[in-house]
Specification:
Elements lengths: L13 H14 L8 E2 L1 H8 L3 H13 L3 E4 L3 E4 L4 H21 L6 H18 L6 H18 L3 H6 L5 H12 L5 H17 L7 H9 L3 H10 L7
Antiparallel strand pairs: 1-3, 2-3
Helix pairs in contact: 1-3, 4-8, 4-10, 5-6, 5-9, 6-8
Length: 233
């Protein structure tokens, strides 16, 4: 099994590390949909017992990222179009609300953190073809901070499983080199300005967020054809 490896975080136990490593490889399509996961093989590769690996896989099942298939074992789930839509709708509902709630309320430290994230994302956009992981991670970091700054940090954590299929479709778009990074960055800068200065009368937060979260829609059907083996029927 080909995995992208990284070192454990300080004080990270075996179960948490196995979960983080497997989830990262699934979300970045290093473990493509349909890949068979063998606990014994992972145990040897990671040099740890099967118990933390089994526990990590159980957690991933709760996020609809792996499934047990009779006669085949554990597999990475295909990208389910209904779960993709559900994840999109959840983010649209929460993020249009939080954009309105924190408009004009950014503190100096918060504004500085967002500016830094935007600068790093702009730099990462130039390397999208070879390092899509970095751009997507910074995109997620921008939105995570929006949740935190509006008092919804726990909501961001709670919906990670629900939006997992939506996020894999986003990553596939970036991996294919089709993401319109200029549009994404332009909208992120617009959100930053709303949070810093407030929203003008007549600005529709729901519509703004809808346009942003469907940035990959134009390429969705192309990806569905080119990578049909990654999606449910």
């Amino acid at each position: 099994m080909n995995l992208t490896y990284f070192v454990p975080n300080q004080n990270e136990n075996s179960r948490a590390f196995a979960y983080r490593l497997l989830r990262n490889n699934i979300m970045t399509l290093k473990l493509v949909p349909g890949t068979v996961i063998k606990e014994g093989e992972l145990s040897r590769q990671l040099n740890m017992s099967r118990t933390p690996i089994h526990e990590a896989i159980t957690a991933l099942k709760d996020e609809w990222l792996v499934e047990v298939v009779p006669q085949s074992g554990t597999k990475v789930t295909l990208i389910d179009k209904s779960l993709l839509k559900e994840g999109y709708n959840a983010r649209l509902l929460f993020e249009s609300s939080l954009l309105s709630d924190c408009a004009g309320k950014l503190g100096r430290t918060q504004a500085s953190a967002l500016q830094d994230c935007l600068s790093r994302q702009e730099a990462a956009s130039e390397k999208l073809a070879t390092q899509p992981d970095i751009f997507i991670q910074l995109d997620d970091e921008m939105h995570r901070m929006m949740y935190a700054f509006s008092g919804r940090a726990r909501t961001w954590q709670a919906i990670r499983g629900l939006v997992s299929h939506y996020d894999r479709a986003r990553y596939l778009d970036a991996m294919s080199g089709k993401t319109d990074t200029e549009k994404v960055l332009r909208e992120h800068r617009e959100f930053y300005n709303y949070m810093l200065m407030g929203m003008s009368d007549g600005t529709d937060a729901m519509q703004k967020m809808r346009e942003h979260l469907t940035s990959f829609r134009g390429d969705y059907w192309d990806n569905l054809g080119e990578y049909s083996q990654y999606f449910t029927l």
